[in-house]
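Subject: sequence -> structure tokens, single chain

Hey, anyone have a minute? Need the predicted structure for the following. Not urgent.
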Amino acid sequence: MVKMEDLEKKLFDQSWTYKNREKIIKKMQSSQYDVVIIGAGITGAGIAREAAMRNLNVAVVDMQDFSAGTSSRSTKMAHGGLRYIAYGETNLVKSAT
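Reply:
Had a minute. Here:
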């Protein structure tokens, strides 16, 4: 299994802001991925985490910012839910739904 520090670097190595969007898109276009996840809600984030834990090269794409759609409104836990998933606290996410 991957260490948490390595996973965080893999998941959060770029600052996903509008200022970096073009740079990130160019990097993604010139890279190869084992898994491409369409949808950056809580389900997509969980799948991305699991794939990254298995040392797969993962890309997550969405038409909006991460957790901006249904995940931002359904449980009111998108931010906390992502944090819980990153630390493996899936029972907390499950109990919040």
